[in-house]
Amino acid sequence: MNTKRFTILHSNDMHGDFLAELEAGTGDAIGGIALLSGYINQVRATEKNVIYTISGDMVQGSIIDSEFKGISTIEIMNYLSPDCASLGNHELDYGLPHLLFLDKLANFPIINANMYIKKYNKRLMLPYLIKTVDDFDILFIGIVTETVLDALKLDCQIGTFISLEDAATEIGRICDAYKNDDIDLTVLLTHIGLDSDKELAAMLKPEWGVDMILGGHSHSYMDQPEVVNDILIAQAAVGTDQVGRFDILVDDDSNSIVDWKWQLVPIHSDDIAPDLELQKFIDSYKTAVDAKYNTLLCRMSQTLTHPSREVETGLGNLISDIFAENWDLDVAFIGSGSIRMKQLGPVVTLRDLKQLFPYDDTFSRYTVSGKQLEQIFSYIMRKENRNGEGECYQVNHGVKAVYDEVFERLVSLDIGGNPVDMDRTYQIGLQSYHAINCEENLGFTMEELSELNPPKVLATSMQSVIDEYLREHQAIKREVEGRLVYR
Prior knowledge:
The chain is an alpha/beta fold. The chain has a six-stranded mixed beta sheet, with helices on one face. Strands 9-10-12-13-15-14 form a six-stranded mixed beta sheet, with helices on one face. Strands 20-29-24-30 form a four-stranded mixed beta sheet.
């Protein structure tokens, strides 16, 4: 049996998490790109055949990334020198033309097989990579979630030309065409979420010879990989506090993994030396950003938190209250995923705001009937939407919605202390991203949302509205008060 050992390190959903944090009680550093690079360098120096991959969402989530629109991220990723990276949905946040520019800046291949220029039936990106390591050939294929289409709809000139083809079909096409007897290992770099990874693995034909799925998008923390259809499936949570590590034995004769071990390695200064050259490079960006954004906006009475996008949070309550109060809305729907910090305050700077709410979206008012409003809450509160991959919302004071998870139905909906009236109309506020994708996110088409009154743009910059509110209000408090109740 002709076998060789490989070490595969994998990250996903790094979201511009460049800087280390101090561990409570010890003062040791956790995470950050410089420490992660130190660990990767350490493994590359001690193991023979090392591969490092990234499964999407390198960008979006830090002030450095948003200030330089991902250019800083790609330059920093170049220091890490991944062997291969796949596209995530947030790589599209700065627009498709900018993504193609970032792709040119990268010194590493960024692959994706299931995004097409529809008119010409042509793949947008490099779909796969065959990499030779110690005379063994490894095939990488990139797959991205359909969520990427939601972002592209914001660009009416480009989004209409892009479609996502069935992932399993695309994998089969590539494997049929390129997976010959010389391909020893086949790895999918996906960004579709853990549940979808398992569904995808079950659909793949054994003849295609897929060995491993290294995923992202759902930020899943795993104790050990899942195994579906003899395919190993792993994710490395979110950020840079950890990295996934496979140590595998590959058989050249059967083109398969015959032995493996996996661990989620903590990135901790206790046993890892940082990459000092990379740290200097990151610090140059940090200095420029600090000079611009370390302006005090306000001081709150408490720290507000946003631990999960699937439930009501204190920080979510504040953001939704700001927009409801500003325009006297009955319901302000704020996408939970738009709030990108786990906690805010008590001291709040302009830097915090840029990290808290990086999507500078427009905000519009829609008029809906009581029946439509009840249907929206029934749709967004359903259990299958709260699986880490659905679109969840935060709502303002005066709203109380109760959902029964056993019978899977909305039990009650009160607005302003009164049960929703099916015969009257209500004013709701939506971000343009959620309005444009309202059929998937709210269960209504744009025509249905606009049939009672045409929508009205209330703000062209949501970030500016939050900025002004924080500057004018001090000693802010918010509690979780039962606006969204699941029983």
